[in-house]
Amino acid sequence: MSIRIHGRCPSARHPMDSGDGLVVRLRPQANRLTPDQARAIAAAALRHGNGLIDLPARANMQLRGVRAQTHAALIGALAPLGLIEPDSVVAPRNIIVTPFADAATYALAEALRRALVAAPGLPHKFGFMLDCGPAPVMRDSSADIRLERSVEGGLILRATGISQGAPVTLAQAPLAMCDLARWFVAAGGIREGRGRMAQLIAQGARPKGALAPTHAPAPGLARPRPGLVAQGALVGFEFGQLQGETLAELAALGPLRLTPWRMLLIEGLHAMPDLPGLITDPRDPRLRVFACTGAPGCLQGRADARALARRLAPNLGPETIVHVSGCAKGCALPARADLTLVATPEGFDLIGNGRAGDPPSRRALSPLDILQLPEFS
Ligand code: SF4
User: Fold this and answer.
1) Rg of the Cα trace of the chain?
2) What 3-state class would DSSP assign to 206?
């Protein structure tokens, strides 16, 4: 059975219109870029877009401000480098591979990609996560089917929403992940083309047999911060956005791994790079402020979320996480934040320990009101 896609997210061939032009989303295989690929993306962003590149939470890349007249030329420039999914390919590529992957994990990612061609039709946002290092590092990132380590150290397959997982071997994992996707479909996980694993699990459905959850996963690690790791150097960017010129400079340093944390990992470095536009200090408060494009770059934006976020960042407590959203959709951070500010036509709503769509505790605050709140002053 070949795969079908229900609904669509923006992609390279089907970009999304935004306030600053087209948004072209690239999904590099295994969330990895060779230096040539990174250089080509940088050049395309500068030549065909406004030069800005987003690092979304799904460990992919978005080129902003692309002009409709040159979209075809952009596709033509990036397709020969394997960066554009052919129109005929209908298999989802929502596979997030841990940036700390080894060669076996990358081989597994390729095996999963091939196996998914024969998987059933899935919602377009349905995702698979290979988080199979010694301890999970991507627990707060969105996915439906996760491969992790158990407390005993073996691999387990875990449906998001269930705290335990089913034991699998490395060789079994790709087909077992497809089997769990089939179970999701058969159990009624898709309604009108949409659906996520956590919703199905919340309704009481549980996989059985070889997929039955029996093993506890290893405890997850905190979200990484910029610094040196075994695979190279992790660097951050304000609001997860970088300039094309910066990407070109990073490409000169080595292959790049995309992360779900608004950071890039530059492979093989033993010292932190010193380039403009990078966040390399793990204590930088901008790492704890999430803000979407907002107005005017996003058509739904009710305010310039990033302008306010820049004013708030220097005043934050050492561990406080803040999310400033241009509307209730909350694109920049699907997870909870200590403080969330959502722009509305009347001003900003404030939500404590919640998400952008949650009920606010204060309404219609001006930026000046916010700067005078004890949490932000
Ligand atoms: S949260 Fe709203 S304003 Fe912000 S990027 Fe998403 S849709 Fe646009």
Assistant:
1) 21
2) coil
DSSP 118: G
Domain ranges, ordered by start, for the chain: 5-87+225-267, 95-211, 285-376
**The CATH fold of domain 5-87+225-267:** Sulfite Reductase Hemoprotein; domain 2 (3.90.480)
Decide: 298 in ligand 1 pocket, CB within 6 A: yes
For ligand 1, pick from 327, 340, 344, 351 the residue to mutate: most ligand atoms within 8 Å of CB. Answer: 327
Q: What is the domain class of 95-211 according to CATH?
A: alpha beta
Nearest atom of ligand 1 to the alpha carbon of 294: 3
Per-residue pLDDT, 131: 98
Q: Which residues pair with 235 in a beta bridge?
A: 264
Does ligand 1 have an atom closer than 6 angstroms to the CB of 94?
Answer: no
User: What tens digit of pLDDT does each residue of 25-83 get?
Assistant: 999 999 999 999 999 999 999 999 999 999 998 999 999 999 999 999 999 999 999 99
Distances (CA, A) of 221 to 83, 134, 236: 31, 10, 18
Residues 20-37 pLDDT 10s = 999 999 999 999 999 999
